[in-house]
Amino acid sequence: MSTFKGRSLGILELERGIPPEAVEPNHNPNSIRNPSTFSFPTMFETVSGAWVDNVVPGDPRMETPYIEAAQRLVERGASVISSNCGFSVRHQAAVAAAVNVPVIMSSLLLAPSILLQLPAAAKIAILTYDSKHCGDDIFEVLGISRATREARFVVGGIEGGEFWRNSLEKPVVRTSLKSIQEDVAACAERLRTTNPEIKCVLLECAEFPIAASVVRERTALPVYDLVSLCKTTVAALARDGSDVGPR
User: Fold this and answer.
1) Confidence band (pLDDT; 50, 70, 90) for 243?
2) Could you tell me the residue range of the domain that residue 118 belongs to?
3) CB 3.0-4.6 Å disulfide test: which of 21, 191, 193, 242 passes with 156?
């Protein structure tokens, strides 16, 4: 394991309906809650009042709780702030303005740079927890126009599936690794069947990195996710020559 010399990742979490001390580590490979996913410490802070059913649709009242939770993480020593819900990207600017460390609320922040990596005719598939809520307001935050969105992005979600239903429960019900992997990979395959111009996949949901390897295997496409973004961002803070980036 690389040395980290004080670098740590702070993750803003949705409410689960159970006490934080009762939340068990998630040992699924590549989960942000799996202690072995990162070669540096992680810490978690629940955002008061932030549930799937209000953060995913975009309740503006959640901005202040996100800011306050991020500030608590920085006080605890976090050197990078992220979140376990990609739809919290709506609060990216507000949180970044409120703390003095790098803020990466969502893997969706990668979308503009991925566009520049691809030829003009290529499309990007965004796989999301709920495609109904990944619309104009999200792309506006990313600085992507509606015309570019319509020409270059294909959005698909797993709404209605087991993980989607379980995440809306209070308390949240855990979904099996196999179920999540199958839902996400099947969505990717459906999108590519109807859109052969898709040349890469961006996973919006912070739970989806556990399905990244399956999506790569079944689509033979590059797959981007939050875990890789977090590793790269923390690695950018390295001053000792250690490599804490993607492995």
Assistant:
1) low
2) 109-224
3) 191
